[in-house]
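re the bet — no i am not wrong, look at it urself. input seq straight from the record:
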Amino acid sequence: MEPTRWLAVIALLGLPGVAFGGWALLTYITGREGLSPAQQRFFRDGHAHAGVLLVLSLVYVSYLDDTGFSEGLQWAAGLTLFAGVTAQSSGFFLHMAAVDTSSPSAGTKLTRAGALLIGAALVALAIGLIVA
């Protein structure tokens, strides 16, 4: 199977995880355990970023074949995007666990690293589309 098909499968398999995250968020907000307002905000942000970025990934993958990239470069570009999506959304959850959410944490750094990876993957796709 070509890289674009496998990358689309990876994105599609990630979406049930996002759906479960929404269920978990509602459970925490309406349950006895509860989350602090800051924890709710970061949980909601991580959940939203994961969902939106996975949908972006499906669009991204649909354009990879139009670039003329080799299979290896398609894999590299797609996996860079997925690493960025995972890092960015995971960073919000990691920051949620920080003792002091008002100052930068490891989660903040992970979120920023994810943004850089997503940006690099998008620039690579844009260049590939221009060159093709």
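see?? DSSP finds four helices and no strands in the chain. told u. also Helices lie at 3-30, 37-64, 71-96, 106-131. so pay up
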